Amino acid sequence: MSGPEHDDEHQHGSLSATELRVRALETVLSQKGYVDPAALDELIDTYQTKIGPRNGAQVVARAWCDAEFRRRLLEDATAAIASLGFSGRQGEHMVAVENTTEQHNLVVCTLCSCYPWPVLGLPPTWYKSAPYRARVVKDPRGVLGDFGVHLPETVRIRVWDSTAEVRYLVLPQRPAASEHLSERELANLVTRDSMIGTGLPLKPVSRSAASPSP
Length: 214
Hints:
This protein is mainly alpha-helical and 214 residues long. Helices cover 48% and strands 10% of the residues. The chain contains 13 helices and 4 strands. It has helices at 4-12, 17-31, 37-50, 54-65, 67-75, 77-82, 117-120, 125-128, 130-138, 140-146, 183-187, 192-196, 207-210, and strands spanning 94-98, 103-108, 156-161, 167-171. Helix 4 (54-65) packs across helix 5 (67-75) and helix 9 packs across helix 10. It is globular and about 55 Å long.
């Protein structure tokens, strides 16, 4: 069997049961005129690529460059984040936790998938999965290893459980040898996973590597 119907069936074969139900609901609502598919696609794209996680990256980069903003972020993350224009539903009560050489922070929502949309966009599929939610509490170091993050045994790992009342943003450590970078360039090093705690910021390109050969 070939053609669009076969292609659609092939694509559906890779979707989870929940995703299939969402697709079916979207189709019904669209057919009844309750939802504009184009508007829905634009909304999803906005949260995935524009609202977040680029917003969070700007927050982190500002904290790396501005000691006063970093202080305010750690004292009252909701207000500090709002001062940059990032606020809204799912981000009303934010707490920032800072990674250090002694402690690494890791965020989960063990009950469902509470997530700070205004700064991180839509939650990744794995964040909502039952295996991640269960295992990260019992074996956080092992989970980090699965993500390719291997920390010294001397580094404590603290797991923060997001709730409907409080959501967390990890402030990762600023990468070494990044002193020459602007705030915008620093933001490009901040990944979504580094703000959840399952990843680290990207390493900066050295001056010599960035400069073209004569």
